[in-house]
Structures are given as structure tokens and as C-alpha cells.
Amino acid sequence: MSTTTLSGKTVLITGAGSGIGAATATVLAARGAHLALLDLDEQAATRVAEGLSAPGRHLAIGVDVTSSESLTAATDAALTRFGGIDVVIANAGVAEAGTVATSRIESLARTVDVNLTGVIRTVHATLPHVIDRRGYLLLVSSAAALKNVPGGSSYAASKAGVDAFGGALRLEVAHRGVDVGVAHPAWVRTPILDAQYKIDAVREGISKLPWPFNVVTDVEDCAEIFATGVEKRSRKVYVPGALAAVDRVRPLFTGALWDRLVTLRAATTVPALEAEISSRATR
Questions:
Q1: SS3 labels along 2-59
Q2: Which of 136, 155, 197, 238 is the catalytic position?
Q3: First to last CA, the chain
Q4: What are the backbone dihedrals phi and psi of residue 198, each rounded to the nearest 5 degrees, phi first?
Q5: Cα 275 from chain centre
Q6: How many Å apart are CA 241 and CA 133, to the nearest integer?
Q7: Would you say 90 and 138 are in contact if contact means Cβ atoms under 8 Å apart?
Q8: Is pLDDT at 258 greater than 70 in this prediction?
Q9: I want to staple 44 with a disulfide (CB 3.0 to 4.6 A). Which of 17, 19, 239, 267 is the partner?
């Protein structure tokens, strides 16, 4: 397995203004990387950049991953500053608890546009430059791509799409010296999870998931795992690591037996979730 020494390498991260992206930036900066920090909230990305080791070594850029023009401009800005791109971490994402019946179609579609199409746009904008450096791309999927559970259909679809896209992309670029990894984090303590934890039904649902799907990881630990995955140019990155075994037996968590087991619980958990979300919407 080839490895990447991060010192002096340029790493572009989307969704770098908070959560996993910001925490990963902190670890990568400490390991000597030069960072292009992209986020819809440019001020948040700037605050992250200013708090890193050697802050003058990094660049914060406002970007909308649902816009190819915005991503092209951000990529050009990174190239102007650093001269090339060695690593891309396509991390930007959104999540909203709810069932299809209780969600607005605009919300469901936006989740897919940000989480999946945003990753595709990010790769398309940066890939020629990563090829030039024989670099590495880490696409952030989720543990949601490994199992079927109610309450996040469009999120799961978007993350499963990232997994499939990454697998196909890996085969397209391997002969060019580029490696592609897909990350599958489960629950990580970030602002997204904090928002979901405010919903009682979500919090209870997480606690009742089977291990290791119910594991909640500190964002700093997740960032260390991501950074090591980048250094090793890993094909897969799992948070927690026990998800690697789950991925190898994925049909157990997406097949008919799993459906029967989850359906029994969903008969009570789904109505509770829908009732709570409807109640919050009317406040």
C-alpha cells in the first residue's frame, strides 16, 4: 500500500467550517499539510484557518457545492495559492431527521444535491489537478450506506450513492496513479448530530440500534482516523473501525431478515418520530 507524507502537501476539504471537516483540518495542519478550507460559510472556514498551526499556511474559501461554477472558482483559488492539489476530502453534507411522509420534497432533494451531487461536482472540479499530483481523494459516505433504517431515506440514498460513485471512480483513475477512498462514519459528535439529538425519537432510536451502529465517536477521534486514512491512501475508512466487519457482511443489514426485525420496531418508532417532527413544525 502506498502512503502519503502530509508535510508540505496541499489538501482541499469541503465542509471545513465545522464538525468533521474542521476537526480533520486541525489534525492535518498539525501534520504539516497546507489546507484549502472550503465551506458555504466562509467566515466559519476563516475562523478554522486562523486557529490552525501555522495559520498563514492555509486558505479559507467560500463555496457552494451545489454549484459547479462556485467549485471551479474555489479550485482555481486554491491552485493560485498553492500551485496544485494533492488530496481532496469531499466532506460537505447535510442531514435532516424525518420520514419521506413528513419531509418537504425540497428538503429531500437538497440532501441528495449536497451530499451526493456535491461530491460529484467536487471531484469533477478537482480531479485533473489530483491526477497531476498522482494524489488521493477521500469521499465521505456514512454508516447509513451500510444498513437500512427508517427516518433518513434521502440521507441514506445520498450516502449509498457516494459509496457507489467512489467505487466506480477508483477503477477509472487507478491507472493514473490516483487512489480513491470512501469513509463510513457512524455517529460523530458534530453540530449536525447535536441538532438531531434535540429530537427525542432520534436520540432514542440511535440508542436502540445494534452495535456498532449505535456507537457515538468524538469528532477529534474521527479526525485522527480520517487523517491516518489519508496518509495510508486507504480504500475504506471506518468510524468506528468495527464497521469494517459490517461492510463485509452488508447483505445481513439490507436483506429481508433485517427488514423483518426493523419493521417490528418501526411500527412504534416511526409514528413517534413523525408525531414529534410534526409537532415541532407547528411551533
A1: CCCCCCCCEEEEECCCCHHHHHHHHHHHHCCCEEEEEECCHHHHHHHHHCCCCHHHCE
A2: 155
A3: 54
A4: -70, -15
A5: 29
A6: 29
A7: yes
A8: no
A9: 17
Instruction: Please report which residue ranges of the chain form alpha helices under DSSP H.
Output: 19-30, 42-50, 68-82, 105-112, 118-132, 153-173, 191-197, 200-208, 219-232, 243-248, 256-281
Integer Cα distance of 19 and 168 in angstroms? 27
Residue 30 pLDDT grade (very low, low, confident, very high; cuts 50, 70, 90): very high
Q: Which residues pair with 88 in a beta bridge?
A: 12, 137
How confident is the model over 89-134, as pLDDT tens digits?
A: 999 999 887 889 889 999 999 999 999 999 999 999 999 999 999 9
Residue 136 among the catalytic residues: no
Q: Nearest Cα to 186, choosing from 145, 153, 151, 157? A: 145
Q: Which residues pair with 184 in a beta bridge?
A: 238
Q: Is the peptide bond before 150 cis (omega within 30 degrees of 0)?
A: no
Q: 42: buried, middle or exposed (CB in 10 Å: 19+, 13-18, 0-12)?
A: middle
Residues 6+ apart with CB under 8 A from 158: 93, 111, 112, 114, 115, 116
Query: How far is 176 from 63, CA to CA, in rounded Å?
Result: 28
Banded pLDDT at 1 (limits 50, 70, 90): very low
Distance CA 20, CA 224 (A): 10
Cell of 12: 482541499
* Domains defined for the chain, CATH in brackets: 10-281 (3.40.50.720)
pLDDT at 181 over 70: yes
Higher pLDDT, 81 or 208: 81
